[in-house]
UniProtKB/TrEMBL annotation:
<keyword id="KW-0396">Initiation factor</keyword>
<feature type="region of interest" description="Disordered">
    <location>
        <begin position="1"/>
        <end position="21"/>
    </location>
</feature>
<protein>
    <submittedName>
        <fullName>Translation initiation factor SUI1</fullName>
    </submittedName>
</protein>
<dbReference type="InterPro" id="IPR005874">
    <property type="entry name" value="SUI1_euk"/>
</dbReference>
<keyword id="KW-0648">Protein biosynthesis</keyword>
<feature type="domain" description="SUI1">
    <location>
        <begin position="32"/>
        <end position="102"/>
    </location>
</feature>
<dbReference type="InterPro" id="IPR036877">
    <property type="entry name" value="SUI1_dom_sf"/>
</dbReference>
<comment type="similarity">
    <text>Belongs to the SUI1 family.</text>
</comment>
<dbReference type="Pfam" id="PF01253">
    <property type="entry name" value="SUI1"/>
</dbReference>
<dbReference type="InterPro" id="IPR001950">
    <property type="entry name" value="SUI1"/>
</dbReference>
<comment type="function">
    <text>Probably involved in translation.</text>
</comment>
<dbReference type="GO" id="GO:0003743">
    <property type="term" value="F:translation initiation factor activity"/>
</dbReference>
<dbReference type="GO" id="GO:0003729">
    <property type="term" value="F:mRNA binding"/>
</dbReference>
């Protein structure tokens, strides 16, 4: 009588690395992230990061400031690269501005409340 359950079988032995060669699984480098941060009281800050290198951040910041009537700045982050910060909740406005100017909606992620 042979019992299958008593054999020593490791189901993960032949698999090796579960991610395989795809080292960029879950990477956020191909998305443009629009986030909101709470400052103090009712004041908020909107950040835009992950913009492709083909777009000039300074020109985009100038266009955002003129279009949305808010102040903004360009911050260099060692992990995220250049981050555009705007005063107030500008998430929807930034998203529509970017989609109207040729960036696909599927590459834009809007985070927040």
């Amino acid at each position: 009588m042979s019992v299958q359950n008593l054999n020593s079988y490791d189901p993960f032995a032949d698999e090796g690395d579960p991610l395989g060669d795809s080292a960029d699984v879950g990477s956020t480098s191909d998305y443009i992230h629009i986030r909101i941060q709470q400052r103090n009281g009712r004041k908020t800050l909107t950040t835009l990061q992950g913009l492709p290198k083909q777009y000039d951040s300074k020109k985009l910041l100038k266009a955002f400031k003129k279009e949305f009537a808010c102040n903004g700045t360009l911050v260099d982050d060692e992990k995220m690269g250049q981050v555009i910060q705007l005063q107030g909740d500008q998430r929807a406005k930034i998203s529509t501005f970017l989609t109207d100017n040729g960036i696909e909606k599927s590459t834009i992620k809007v985070h927040g409340f």
